[in-house]
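Hey,

The postdoc asked me to send both predictions to you directly instead of through the lab channel. I've kept everything plain text so nothing gets mangled by the mail client. Protein one:
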Amino acid sequence: MSAPDRQARRMARPGGFAYFRKDETAGALLCLAALLAAGGVVAEPRFEDRSATLGAHEYTGGWTHFVGGGVAVMDCDGDARPDIFAAGGESPARLWRNRGEFDFAPVPLPELTGVTGAYPVDADADGHPDLFILRAGPNRLLRGLGDCRFEDATGAMGLPPGDAWSTAFTAWWEDDGRPVMAVGNYVDRDDPDGPFEACDDNEILRPTDEGWRAETLAPGFCALSMLAARDARGRAALRISNDRHYYVRGGHEQMWDIAERRFLTEADGWPTVALWGMGIASRDLDGDGRDEVMLTSMGDQLLQLAQPDGSYTAAPFSIGSYAQRPHLGDDGRPSTGWHAEFGDIDNDGRADLFIAKGNVDQMPTNAMRDPNNLLMQQPDGTFAEASIEAGIATTERARGAALADFDGDGRLDLVVVNRRAAMELWRNVSRGTGHWLGLDLAQPGGNRDAIGAVVTIETEAGRQVMQRSIGGGHAGGRLGPIHVGLGAAARARVTVEWPDGTRTGPHQVEADRIVTLDRAALPG
């Protein structure tokens, strides 16, 4: 399905950003939504609080932990149930094993404090997820040993730990060996003229025979999120979201071409946008194979729509994704968005959007009681707030979060890390949800999880295109099966474009199960 023409006219809005309103209110989103609506799935999202099973873990600390607070979700014991690692700031980081039916048990870890976030990545290709630990101080690489056991292998695996204030991470593969990893650093704590205009440089960690070597990626504008993924041009690019609070002026959101090793400009279709960038979410919303990009901020949450010419324009305000004020109606000050993540909450075949919200600390310019957002995509392609009805409109200072199917029932559940408040764990108990798939990928070699693959899922209602990536969000991410809502469809056709460009499929797949597509076992 080709995307319709997205001619737009510039529209001025408060806040100093350049916005666009499309001539057609939802453009290509309407086309796909109309098809998917034919699936007939109508479910009201509902969640049940299961936080008590995790205990009272909090993300704590002073200035260096105003940001961060990420959560990593992965299967660390091979039982097909997602487990949880949470940053603690000045408190120790924690790990919980998922024993099924929302029973989570704490697992011993090496003592880790100063942790801002973590991302799962199989860095040594042994089939056990490792954890890249972001810290205000030297970073750590925990090697997964299976059975949810980890050891600090920073030195043994040859990782340059650095000593920066690290707050963002992503990874990709450029060959069949170890991953290339990017680390985003915040304020340079050693700059005597800081903290304003004192953003630290970022780093690219490139694999060597001994481990990795660090390369400087500059300029840095206080990165709070990074994501390596295919951009609207169809090329691999590194997206970096930056915090204007500390770069103040001269900085902006960044996109770095991975192959050409250069930052993109407006001439490449990447708009110059300056905001208080906190998190990144990426998802193709109209089935054209180009991911839209959500950038969270203090104030508007900016959704950038991918265009056929490889450029981006801002979504119209009427789409309902900006979420710029608390939706409880009791505070008119701007919201502060952190982690953002797309996921199909009701399995109707349309991607919904969760945004974790919370004041930095006591910032009087922004709302203090700032409820999280659950934006459900409607049949017309717009988004509608549903967190109050769903029961998850809590007002703690949320930071990191993750959507994952913790109980294996095909519905995405939710975990949220809060600053100076207990973590939240929510079970999705929505009734009348559609069919679903969990798609896992495997291949031989160093990139065992096929990071960088693009998966196309087709049913009678339409098609969805999803990338397999590591990174994005705010200070944490997930490694595991790709969750796909299918609506009323009981089966789907799945085509995989593997990281090297080889295609397999379409593979006929039955709904309501996790399916592993192992490249070594597939025909062709």
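Protein two:
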Amino acid sequence: MAESLLTRVFKVCICCTLILLCLERSGTDAANILMIGNYGKGSHFLALVPVGRSLLKQGHNVTFLISEEYSFRAQDAKYSELFKFEIFHNSDPDYSVKEFFQKLEELGFSESGSLLQFYKLFSTFSRAIVKTCDSVLEDEAMMKRFETLDAIVADIGWPCSLAIKAYLRSRSRNDPRLILTSPTTVNNAPFDILGSPYNPAYQPFTMTGFTSSMSFTQRLINTLSLFSMRVFVSLMGSEFQSVLDKHNLSSYLGGSDRMASWRNMTDLFLISCDFAMEFPFPLTPNIIPVGGLTAGPAKDVGKDLNDFMESSGEHGVVIFTLGSYFASYTSVRPDVLKIFLDALARIPQKVIIQLKDTPSIPLPPNVKAMPWLPQNDLLGHPKTRLFIYHGGNNGFHEALYHGVPVIVIPFFGDHVDIMVRVTSRGMGLGIDRAHLSVDYVYRQMNEVLTNQTYRDRAKQLSAIFKDRPMTPADRAAFWINHVINHGGDYMRSPANDLPFVQYHLLDVFSFLLGIVCLTVYLSYKFLKLFIRCCVYVLNSLVKVKRD
């Protein structure tokens, strides 16, 4: 009898638990979500993985679209056991996605970084956008599978998400939500698309290396840089138009021009920043800061690595990496590698360095080389004393999360912006590649390692960064789920619906200026008349006196 009663109580508890879970999940049906992270390459892909995990926890189905050149992602157990993968094949056998990233790396290691090289990169990037998107749209079987999509979460660097949504509108009448992301520091693109203000008077443009306090010359450069980037984006859009025209998608973009198309197609934008380190600026409701997607509590690094870390004693360990995009400097620039190795040999700390290829020069006894680093886990190890790296946004937030001082060696793009944020907040220093020498690199490392101020500041900023109600990935997943259920129209700024004259209040200022001018004119006429009257009266009085 007692067992029967316990059984019934147990069943009631199970039923109540299930009911509560159902109530908690009410209104959150499983959605089919496609995630696009820059062909599956590097930090752009890795930044979306934590968001995908959070979406899975909410019960959604998550699929990643990647290039066949990065199909190893689909064979990696840590991803394949969680996500589905769609792999697109290049329709042009003479073209390679990796060509773009190779040219990017060459530009990063260039001594001059000339404008000509930048335009070569632009040309390659344009080809990548056109050819890869065309390959996706030509795969009719894959596009057919996309007809059940409820949302597309895509990196803004590859505008094919816009074409995929337009294709689904044209063929299946399906209209999935579009959520754009970017793993880089803040730039003007999402603000222009969604109507959020971007003021070059205090918002430093990407790649300028300015802070929010700018001189006149810096504000002039900042404004011209913003204008140049808008021209650049327009040129990129012109290249992409050929894909839209080929597949007859232009009429399904929801706008008369490219910017209107982006605006009307996009429900939400996730920007990779956090105001613990970012210069303050205003945001519209449909732009959500989610900086630190790859940062989190450290996991066990394994026995071999942990033994190496612990063997460092009180001096600790320095982590050195140039990331997935520039880690092949072993063969590209062996002279640069030698400078760093000679400088690292001088410090008492042990060093873990990422090298894709085996170097031709011997490693110092305190240096351990690895082709890949569990970066976040190493940064969270209690023996880590310094992080030296190229300035990627993911690594920046991981170091911030764990309170590790940083030395930034900027190569390209937003790396210099990360360096400015690190140095302006007192979290570390930068290294100018134009003046590389063993002594210079050693001085910078020694300053950060021996000056406790950098570590104290890093810990203080880390405390601010971690004091939040949910993780960045959970925050991103919450808002993705929100726009799936409710859309993003209600969060759209009316700014983009206003003509240039109205948005900048030129008509209002013109009217007020007219009132002021009219008042001044009438005052002038009245004063002139008053003076004439006074003169007339005086002349009359003088005449009367004479008579």
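Summary for protein two, as requested: Residues 15-27 have pLDDT under 50 and may be disordered.

Thanks,
C.
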